């Protein structure tokens, strides 16, 4: 649970193994089928082999609840009512506010990223595994959890080591990060992935509307299409980097797809088993405003849904005390924590990125590459580098995000996602920083130029002629291309010129009309359409006859000159009358 990059160190491998065996048994007991979207069901959907574990994780790879969905149908019987902490049909019941947040997030993503095909049931599955649907829907009227839901501090003691990144602002811990809220984001990820899902002007990881929308955007990055099994697997693994986690979420996803119902807030089923086999170690609700002492591990509480087991005197299970291993009076040596790769980073260096230039609306053909180095210039692997697009620009990374966090590879290099140019032209700054380490950032400059065309051609070959004082029967239509491809959205200018050698505006001959019907012989502000076509308005002729030139130019240097002819209509002489016969 939580959101960031780093390999998870799990305690209680036996519990995870048991969960994996249970998942396999459940797969065999449920018949394969097709869901309402016509996709493969989880029972016969094997995670794609390409979706393997990586260093990335949205949750900091924190522990999660391993409870499996029941075997019986999720549809409740009319006589079955919700019961806190219950099982069976109540498993499918999702608290009203939590369910509303999932569905609103799906609607928002359908508009913002339609190609992602995010189902709200996926958010429900992750929310069930991460926090038991916000601890059974214990939220207020605005969707904020009654008590904070915090994961264990990620101090490397059985978990990933993630030092504090928010000065305790979200998790109350100024030494190490902890997963926060119903979707269990860690602060360093919430800093860029957070969203305002309930339009109250705040991005609160403890609010289910904010957290559900943030989770949706997180799962929809990288242009993933969640209707495709491979991308779905990758997205789930990016949330928590564990194959057991992937299998479990898939199981709950399919369960919710088969049916669910709404239950009152606060009456949802509470989870029981956890992947670390800890008795409520995470996520543990805390009193509002409560903080975790810096450098300390939250004290485990009773496992949800089970009474606390009484402890023997002394708090341990051993009745015979062991003799001290250190003679009395010997000064104790405080434990030392070995430096992490992040601790060794002294600076960032460019890794042969090259010139970053793209036309508006296009993808940059180069990607930013940054290398993390020690003071001696040695590359550092497994360091998280955050790339942030700063300033007033609509340029984003692929997928629409303006922040991306990437772990350095074995060569110490982090490669940012591809940049996608927006419509605003000019210089864009992308800043690379080390997550969890206060070293100077490294700025990259990317240039967005205007859309351009390098060739123009008429789409037809009909003669452009007109009688004096009339209207040209055919309009001028051109097609713009750039390197042979359609050039859409390219600015153009059309001018009636004096001659091929004199491009100044003529004062006689054909003309356009402005909105007030006045004569104009230069049109600016023209743009090609989505197909690269430029359709000029009607042309009119004054009383001057002759051949005239219309010149069209575009950004990028494309130019085409078209001939226009104004001539009086030919008159036909009457044929001589026949001679009268003799």
Helix content: 10-25%
* Structural class by SSE content: alpha+beta
Report the end-to-end length measured between terminal Cα atoms: 117 Å
Total number of beta strands: 27
Architecture of the domain at 93-263, CATH level 2? Orthogonal Bundle
What Rg is obtained from the alpha carbons, in whole angstroms?
34 Å
Rounded mean pLDDT score: 80
CATH topology of the domain at 93-263: Lysozyme
Give the amount of beta strand, in percent: 15-25%
Main sheet makeup: 5 strands, mixed
Q: Could you name the ranges where pLDDT drops below 50 across 5 or more consecutive residues?
A: 1-55, 77-89, 278-282, 286-321
Write out the strand line-up for the largest beta sheet, numbering strands in chain order: 8-16-15-10-12
**CATH class term of the domain at 93-263:** Mainly Alpha
Shape: elongated
Please count the helical segments. 7
């Amino acid at each position: 649970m939580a959101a960031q990059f780093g390999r998870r160190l799990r305690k209680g491998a036996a519990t995870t193994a048991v969960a994996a065996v249970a998942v396999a048994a459940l797969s065999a007991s449920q018949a394969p089928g097709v869901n309402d979207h016509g996709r493969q069901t989880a029972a016969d959907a094997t995670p794609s082999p390409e979706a393997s574990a990586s260093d990335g994780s949205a949750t900091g790879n924190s522990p999660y609840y391993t409870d499996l969905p029941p075997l019986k149908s999720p549809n409740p019987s009319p006589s079955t009512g919700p019961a806190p902490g219950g099982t069976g049909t109540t498993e499918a019941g999702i608290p009203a506010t939590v369910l509303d947040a999932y569905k609103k997030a799906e609607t928002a993503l359908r508009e913002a990223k339609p190609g992602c095909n995010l189902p709200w049931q996926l958010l429900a599955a992750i929310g069930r595994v991460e926090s038991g649907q916000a601890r059974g829907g214990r939220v207020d009227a605005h969707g904020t959890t009654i008590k904070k839901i915090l994961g264990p501090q990620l101090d490397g003691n059985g978990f990933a080591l993630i030092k504090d990144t928010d000065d305790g602002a979200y998790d109350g811990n100024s030494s190490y990060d902890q997963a926060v809220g119903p979707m269990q984001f860690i602060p360093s990820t919430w800093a860029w992935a957070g969203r305002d899902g309930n339009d109250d002007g705040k991005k609160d990881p403890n609010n289910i509307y904010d957290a559900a929308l943030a989770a949706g955007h997180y799962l929809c990055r990288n242009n993933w299409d969640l209707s495709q099994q491979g991308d779905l697997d990758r997205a789930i693994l990016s949330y928590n980097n564990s194959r057991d986690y992937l299998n479990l979420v898939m199981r709950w996803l399919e369960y919710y797809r088969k049916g669910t119902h709404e239950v009152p807030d606060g009456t949802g089923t509470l989870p029981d088993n956890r992947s670390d086999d800890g008795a409520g170690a995470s996520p543990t609700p805390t009193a509002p405003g409560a903080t975790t002492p810096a450098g300390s591990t939250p004290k485990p509480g009773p496992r949800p849904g089970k009474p606390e087991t009484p402890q023997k005197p002394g708090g341990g299970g051993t009745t015979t005390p062991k003799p001290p291993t250190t003679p009395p009076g010997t000064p104790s040596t405080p434990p030392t924590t070995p430096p992490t790769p992040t601790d060794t980073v002294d600076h960032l260096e460019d890794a042969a990125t090259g010139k970053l230039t793209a036309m508006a609306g296009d993808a940059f053909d180069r990607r930013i590459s940054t290398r993390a180095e020690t003071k001696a210039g040695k590359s550092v692997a497994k360091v998280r580098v955050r790339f942030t697009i700063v300033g007033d620009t609509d340029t984003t990374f692929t997928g629409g995000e303006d922040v991306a966090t990437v772990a350095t590879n074995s060569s110490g290099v982090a490669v940012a996602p591809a940049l996608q140019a927006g419509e605003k032209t000019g210089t864009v700054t992308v800043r690379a920083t080390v997550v969890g380490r206060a070293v100077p950032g490294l700025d990259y400059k990317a240039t967005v130029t205007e859309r351009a065309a390098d060739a123009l051609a008429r789409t037809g070959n009909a003669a452009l002629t007109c009688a004096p004082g009339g209207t040209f029967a055919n309009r001028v239509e051109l097609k713009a291309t750039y390197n042979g491809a359609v050039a859409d959205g390219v600015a153009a200018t059309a001018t009636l010129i004096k001659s091929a050698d004199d491009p100044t505006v003529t004062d006689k001959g054909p003309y356009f009309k402005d909105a007030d019907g006045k004569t104009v012989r230069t049109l600016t502000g023209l743009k090609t359409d989505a197909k690269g076509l430029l359709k000029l308005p009607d042309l009119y002729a004054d009383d001057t006859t002759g051949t005239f030139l219309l010149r069209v130019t575009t950004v990028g240097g494309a130019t085409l000159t078209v001939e226009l002819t104004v001539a009086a209509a030919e008159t036909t002489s009457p044929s001589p009358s026949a001679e009268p016969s003799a």
